[in-house]
Amino acid sequence: MESDASALADELSAQADLSISLSLTDSNPEAYEALCDGQAVVASLDAFSTIAAQNQGCGVPSYVVEIDGEVETQTQIVAEAGKIYTIPNIYQRSFCRTDAASASGWIVPMLALKANSVDPFSGLGTVVDVKDDEAVLEAILDKECEVGVTGIGAEQAFGDEGTFDILTELPPVPNTSVVVSAQLDGPRDALMSDLLRKNLDEIAVLLGADELIDAEIVDYNSLNELLDLAGLDVAALAE
What we know:
Blueprint lengths: L1 H15 L11 H9 L5 E4 L1 H10 L2 E8 L5 E2 L1 E6 L14 E3 L5 H13 L11 E3 L3 H9 L5 E5 L12 E6 L3 E2 L2 E5 L4 H13 L1 H7 L4 E4 L6 H9 L5 H4 L1
Parallel strand pairs: 5-6, 5-7
Antiparallel strand pairs: 1-10, 2-10, 2-11, 3-9, 4-7, 4-8
Helix pairs in contact: 2-3, 4-8
């Protein structure tokens, strides 16, 4: 990976007739801070950091990572049919999830709970970790938990449309984005846009993507609105 980054930096430098360096980091906060502090002109950021950069006026998403044909993930909160009808009624109920570190599988559901006056830390009963969406639905039917989060349409595998209630479909979470500094002047912005466009395949490889797609096709607003409803400063998730 380091050699790929070095080779791409050399190619970009040759194309721009400038000295361009690429730094690899597993730290999303580090990349966000470098972009917004003016130390970087382009950064790959997760959805929350991308929104934070937009809100701070320091970055604009240009491309989004596509993996297996998807540029975002979306989940839903489900319960057994006729048991729980609204998000506030989740208070003190047992909750099944598949990944405590997942943005769409746990962070966004927590935001939805908070936006509906249910504290995700003190307002739930038992939180049960299971392996996948099917296990969430089976656990609900087996009374191991009363409510859970799954991918959109996961309940369709059970055949009977009346088995589960969809309490809410949560905002989609865009994949990692390539974010360009909003602090560039016109000529430098045009140069950077041209360099990115000419080297999308190479950049995609560095990001583990199948392809990079124009970020205009994804929706950041719905997630941003949920953050506002939950009363959470998105910069807290980015830093």
